[in-house]
Please model this.
Amino acid sequence: MALAAKQMGYEYICITDHVGNLVIANALDEKRIKKQRKEIDDINKKSDITIFQGAEVDIRAEGKFDVDNSLLKSLDIVLASLHTPLKNGKEKNTDRILRAMENPHVDIIAHLTNRLIEKRDGTDLDIEKIIDKAKETGTILEIDAQPARLDMNDVNTRAAIDAGCLISIDTDAHSTEQLNYMRIGIGTARRGWTKKSDVINTNGLQKMKKMLK
Model:
């Protein structure tokens, strides 16, 4: 993945496997996270592309995670996202995300509504409240460029930008070929009137490092 990103002209790539107890995603436990860190550190010593070690954590009931804060603190970047359950109602699901954004180790809220186009509707959320909280906490909101997701959509992206939030464009790539989904995410961002300055991963390596919590 890093070599493919380098060929695309990237200075850095973020590896954000699932961590915790999400079995369907083969989530990494603490032992595997430490092994991955060693591999990434070894590569970073000899490569001219930087790999950030990150993780995607599942937002459980009441906005809690099934991993310790000490593990999240050890990572370069942390994404938090909803997976299950998704039908607890607008107020409860919104509150889960609001509480997750209060965690100082969370950098990004990923695929906001968790929709799958033509397969699953997005979670019912109070988008305005979430955007206000993202602005307050400095939490970044993601455009997931997977063609089945495109989440946030263009309307929510525009609302986030108008409120002064920052966004990331993430391919959610599970193979090197899927890194090319970036242009699809950029298309969604443009539909939301996003500028280069609104997107954290348009920045160079050093500024990116400073922007992460």
Q: What stands out?
A: Helices lie at 2-7, 30-46, 69-73, 90-101, 127-137, 154-162, 182-191, 205-211. The CA atoms of residues 63 and 99 lie 5 Å apart. DSSP finds eight helices and six strands in the chain.
